[in-house]
Design goal:
The protein is an alpha+beta fold. The chain is built from 23 helices and 29 strands.
């Protein structure tokens, strides 16, 4: 663009230039001044960069050519078209805005009055502080009355001298932060819209605890006397805790939609649990329901409600070691507001509660295994942990000098009425109540130190698998001893045998017998035993000794016992059963033909590794001790799947004399005959034994294949394991009593004789089954003419 070729602009005339580059374009306006001299020498016009521009104006072609065409260049004043801002004014505006924002934050933010007070006084706003004692506008704006709080409680703790810890490390006691009217200490609520959340309506804080927080390493929060009222430290440094989950239904809809009532129930639950509420916050939801969370000194409590369905789900977590389960009844009472029954006007539905308790975090192995609610304990597995247990009621919990005893009533969702339940309710075939757990009687469980020791629903199966096999293996039991068995179930089984004249019951905990009498009387009921007492503990044949059973026998205070019943825990939980001294004490207390019966724990699986490296190494140690004892001549292992546990239970019987094998391997009719002869009829005429009979004992005679597999995985491998299975290329020789011509043996002159030559490697066995024939080692030392008679008198197996 160039100037007018006729001599440039005239006085007052505007001339426009369009200047710029491809990156920045602008339009400037020039006006010629009066009396401006016209320079004969033309110069290119230099343009200042516009805002954000890159470089000056550029002419098309050489400057000389442009000047020649345009004529003299006037002196002009450049004025940008548009609004301009002075940088000084810009800085003043920014600084002022920041100052106002800071002042607003000081007025409504989480700032200590002692710090911000002088600033607000200078501005004349000292009375606007929301955190002043007695409440303030923040409290009123939320629609609740100001919370009167002692002004002394609001003062920051004075600085204290730091303690000197390990290696000179300074430990600073950190006080609890200053309490404010707003739960989140954010002053007025931020006005914003949340998805499906109404304006929050309830907030609050809890009472101040009577102690300082000290979270330095390896220290605890303690009350003024060093402990809280229950003697439990509030440990903030251990990475562990407890979690209580609660689901409830059949609750009143209005209650579940009321923030105030729910918040009151939440605070009451925290108080009942002995915990400390710091603050809580509740939201109303659309179209109904409430969500609340409370921050505890120990951790938190939270819940959500469904008013139309009458349901609430709640959880409480704490890092304190104080038990949460004792607070469960109070929580159920506070939240369990029943709703009206829509099908029955005037009646209310009973609230239903499902709950679960878990230990959380990371404990040391010793602390974990010692806790009665550890995930490995039976009490946690059967009662406190599973939510599918629809009915849980604690009957009694007692901490005695020796152990912790817990008794619970439980029902699972898939439980159905028993035979006795059907008789009581008169249920007919096809009645739908047969399929409902609502009409099933609860099962009562007894736990000792967290281990399940007895069940009302299956104690017959358990104790008839432990006691009768050993009792009937003995030819004539008169003196019987029982170690532990304080619930009386084993004692009742022993007293049914008419040959028994003396029973010594050795129980370490005297309180166990009293608790069993009161809460599980059916286990020690001898009213149906002829000549006994209503309670087996009161039978005149019974002597009760309160002592440690293993120490009692190791001290040789009891001898010549015909049958010894060890009714303790399994070897994995009872260390004495794998202790050489204790096991030797058991065997030494027996009579020459005495028998001992023990629990073996969970039955092995065919997939288990070598026994001493698997899940039951202590059972293997116990069996090895019995095998190595010179006074033990016969060992029998068996299992029973109907004892009421999740897995089949195993048992071990050890005999001092091999003659016990004669009764042990008796056929079904022989065992049934012994039951009739020794036990007889009950007073009521009902069967004296509920589970055990000849057919049941037949399953005990040959253990399942898993026992053989585990046995043959020993190192070194037992020699007999090389002879498992049958070689179909070898001959089989057997005794046929009815056909002497086909029989390979004959019985004459008190002995068994072979009638044909039997090649080495052949089988001597009945052809219809795989059985064994035991030939005593002593027969090899006898003259040939006496060997057959010795074998006949001392052999036990399929030919006996």
């Amino acid at each position: 663009t160039k100037l007018d070729e006729e001599g440039g602009p005239s006085k007052g005339q505007r001339t426009h230039f369009r200047v710029g580059s491809k990156h920045n374009r602008g339009e400037l306006s020039f006006r010629a001044r009066e009396g401006s001299p016209v320079e004969s020498q033309r110069k290119p016009i230099a343009m200042a960069r516009s805002s954000g521009g890159r470089g000056g104006a550029r002419h098309n072609g050489p400057p000389q050519a442009a000047a020649a065409q345009a004529g003299p260049t006037p002196t002009v004043e450049a004025r940008p078209k548009g609004f301009t801002v002075d940088v000084r004014i810009f800085l003043v505006v920014i600084t002022t805005t920041m100052a106002l924002a800071f002042t607003a934050g000081v007025m409504i933010g989480p700032t200590d009055p002692a710090v911000v007070g002088p600033v607000l006084s200078l501005l004349g706003l000292a009375g606007s502080l929301p955190n002043a004692p007695g409440g303030g506008p923040a409290a009123v704006s939320r629609g609740r009355a100001p919370d009167p709080i002692n002004s002394a409680a609001r003062k920051l703790p004075e600085a204290e001298e730091a303690e000197v810890g390990y290696a000179g490390e300074a430990r600073i006691a950190q006080p609890k932060r200053t309490r404010t009217d707003h739960v989140a200490t954010l002053g007025y609520k931020i006005r914003e819209t949340h998805v499906n959340i109404d304006t929050p309506v309830l907030e609050g804080t809890g009472d101040l605890p009577g102690y300082r927080r000290d979270i330095s390493y390896e220290r605890n929060d303690t009350a003024r006397d060093g402990l809280d009222k229950d003697g439990q430290y509030r440990d903030q440094t251990s990475p562990s805790g407890q979690h209580l989950l609660i689901d409830m239904r059949n609750l009143e809809a209005d209650f579940l939609n009321s923030e105030a009532r729910l918040a009151a129930a939440m605070q009451g639950s925290v108080t009942a649990a002995g915990l400390t509420m710091l603050s809580y916050h509740c939201h109303s939801l659309h179209p109904a329901g409430v969500s609340c969370v409370g921050v505890l000194l120990e951790s938190h409590i939270s819940f959500h409600t469904w008013p139309d369905e009458g349901v609430i789900t709640l959880d409480m977590f704490t890092t304190s070691e104080k038990p949460l389960l004792p607070a469960l009844p109070a929580i159920e009472a506070l939240f369990g507001v029943p709703r009206a029954d829509p099908d029955d006007e005037g009646s209310m539905l009973e609230p239903v509660t499902l709950w679960s308790h878990e230990l959380r975090g990371f404990r040391t192995e010793d602390k974990r295994s010692a806790h009665y609610l550890d995930g490995e304990s039976d009490l946690a597995t059967w009662v406190t942990s599973p939510l599918e247990v629809s009915y849980k009621r604690q009957v009694i919990t007692v901490q005695t000098e020796h152990q912790r005893i817990d008794i619970w009533d439980i029902k699972e969702r898939d439980d159905t009425p028993s035979y006795e339940d059907g008789l009581k309710m008169g249920l007919e075939p096809g009645d739908p109540r047969w399929l409902s757990s609502e009409f099933a009687s609860p099962n009562r469980l007894m736990f000792q130190d967290g281990n399940l020791m007895a069940q009302r629903g299956s104690f017959y199966e358990l104790h008839e698998s432990l006691v009768p096999p050993a009792m009937f293996a003995h030819p004539d039991p008169k003196t019987v001893a029982i170690i532990e068995g304080g619930n009386g179930a084993s004692l009742a089984q022993v007293l049914r045998h008419r040959s028994v004249t003396r029973v010594v019951l050795v129980v370490a905990d005297p309180m166990l017998i009293g608790i069993s009498r009161e809460h599980l009387p059916e286990m020690s009921n001898c009213a149906d035993v002829p000549g006994s007492a209503p309670s087996c503990f009161d039978d005149p044949r019974v002597e009760i000794v309160h002592a440690d059973g293993f120490e009692y026998l190791a001290a040789k205070k009891l001898a010549n016992v015909d049958v010894l019943i060890v009714d303790t825990e399994n070897p994995e939980r009872q260390d004495e059963l794998s202790d050489p001294r204790a096991v030797a004490g058991l065997i030494s207390s027996l009579s020459p033909d005495g028998i001992v019966a023990l629990k073996g724990g969970i039955a092995p699986s065919i997939l288990d590794p070598r026994a001493d490296k698997g899940v039951s190494p202590k059972r293997e140690e116990m069996i090895n001790l019995l095998e190595s004892d010179p006074n033990v001549n016969s060992i029998h292992v068996y299992e029973e799947a109907h004892c009421g546990y999740f897995e089949p239970r195993s048992f071990v019987v050890a005999c001092r004399d091999v003659s016990c094998r004669r009764n042990w391997y008796g056929d079904v009719d022989a065992v049934d005959s012994m039951v009739v002869d020794r036990v007889g009829q009950s007073v009521s005429g009902r069967p004296s034994l509920v589970h055990y009979d000849g057919a049941t004992h037949r399953t005990f005679q040959a253990p399942p294949r898993a026992w053989e597999e585990i046995y043959c995985r020993r190192e070194p491998r037992p020699f007999e394991c090389a002879y498992r299975g049958l070689d179909t290329t070898k001959e089989l020789y057997e005794y046929d009593e009815e056909d002497a011509e086909t029989s390979s043996f004959e019985v004459r002159d008190g002995g068994v004789y072979a009638t044909v030559d039997i090649p080495e490697g052949s089988y001597v066995m009945p052809s219809h089954l795989a059985a064994s024939l035991e030939i005593p080692a002593g027969s090899v030392d006898l003259p040939s003419e006496k060997a057959a008679a010795y074998v006949a008198a001392n052999s036990h197996g399929s030919f006996q």
